[in-house]
Amino acid sequence: MRRRRQLRTTRSAGISRAAVAVAALALVATACGETSSDAAKDDDGGKKSGAYQGKGIGLAYDIGGQGDQSFNDAAHSGYARARKDFKIGGVDMEPGDGESSADKTQRIEQLARQGYDPVVGVGFIYAPAIQEVAKKYPDTTFGIIDDNTVRADNVADLVFHEEQGSYLAGVAAAKTTKAKHVGFIGGVDIPIIHKFEAGFVQGVKSVDPKIKIERRYLTEKPEEGGFASPDKGQDAASGQLEAGADVLYHAAGLSGQGVIQEAGSQKKWAIGVDSDQYRQKALAKYKKYILGSAFKDVGGAVYDLTKSVVHGKPVTGTQRYDLKSGRVGFSDSNPEYQRMKDVVAAVEQAKKDIISGKVKVKIKP
User: Fold this and answer.
1) pLDDT of 26 strictly over 70
2) Is the dihedral of CA 106, 112, 115, 121 positive or negative?
3) Is 329 helix (H, G, I), strand (E, B) or coil?
4) I want to staple 183 with a disulfide (CB 3.0 to 4.6 A). Which of 33, 41, 225, 248 is the partner?
């Protein structure tokens, strides 16, 4: 099991990391012969005119935190790439176990107060926090992933058509199963995960309406561990495999590791989610059995938002990513998958049909 870094109070590891980032930026500015305030000045006497004045990017993780090999790690990849490419500072913060909505608000406000820009909440659970804090810091750009309910001039809602990637996963599963029996495992019984299920089921049925589909949600609420419990995922996978399914698709965050491990140990196919899970080091032992992953490029969205802020033209409002944009899709990293020419062809055709509008993917099961 990986070591979890957790934010327990506003004076915990998050602040220490923020302090390190600030100190590092100060050293860089000093080495260049100017202070941070000098560096921000321009021909307007120090006022904003496109020059980036933030301390870097602030990232607040969803349940499961960094190391989930899925949703949060996808966000971290964009955070890390943005810091490297734009030569900016940054701090990323973990959620605490059993934390309250007030804890999330405190975390987002802490990042904004310390001068990070943009501040990104990874997951819809940050919607109330960003709604509240964005009003207090109108000059800071906020981003929230998987939610489009926050309406403010300084907020970017980063949302995905995950049902489209899930449809491709369904096509791949249906073309691969030998038992004519597949399974879907969702982390939490909530609308956004319903989109994954809806797309997957529709994709399966588009190939063969007679294929049997097992469906299981691990918990009713996020705080019950549906996105953060590999053991729950493993138990669910075991049950579906025992019932006869031979291809399992999960949309369960960190819990999905258990799904992949169980499927791999029984030499059955698993389909990952959010990240290209075939490439995840923590799952290397089972990658032979990872058929592919219905990815959504959360990292790309984080990167694009940061780029817009650094370049002085912050993106705000609802930003939707789909198959056409390339921010949603089905990864084909596994050579075993690539050798299945009929499966690959079916998935590619389905992709073309969705992009052209010939196929409309449902968002409710």
Assistant:
1) no
2) positive
3) strand
4) 248
